[in-house]
Amino acid sequence: MNTDKIFAEAIANEYAPKDTSKVVALRKLDRKAKNPANIFAYSFGVCMTLVLGVGMCLSMGVIGDGSLLMTGGGILLGVLGLVGVGVNYPIYKKLLQSGKEKYAFEIIQLAREISETAE
């Protein structure tokens, strides 16, 4: 098997004009299946990272008055942020899987139609 040929064909297919509406529809369905999971993962990840950062700042006395209450609250916020960051990926995987299951039939059917017309 000539891997250079396969690589060259893959690059050429990427730059070839996609005039068929079926290919465009397939890409839209793919994005429709993946976008909710991506949007959630980025938004939740950024929020939990900010919570973690605020917790660190509070516990180190960078913000707040540095009292024991602020330090304890900062530690709790930091732990909450760590837990949020830690569960972000499993939640993303579940959302992505459910999005793929939701659009799987349509995507497979359209992909088969495209591959049959390409032959």
Properties at a glance:
mainly alpha
In a few lines, what is going on in this structure?
It comes from Candidatus Avoscillospira avicola. With 119 residues, the chain is mainly alpha-helical.
Structure overview:
The protein is mostly helical and 119 residues long. The chain is built from 3 helices and no strands. 7% of the residues are buried. The model has no long low-confidence stretch (mean pLDDT 90).
Explain the layout of strands and helices:
Blueprint: H1 3-15, H2 21-60, H3 68-118
Helix pairs in contact: 2-3
Taking the sheet with the most strands, its summary is:
none
* Backbone structural class: mainly alpha
Share of residues in strands = under 5%
Number of strands: 0
> In sequence order, what are the helices and strands, one letter per element?
HHH
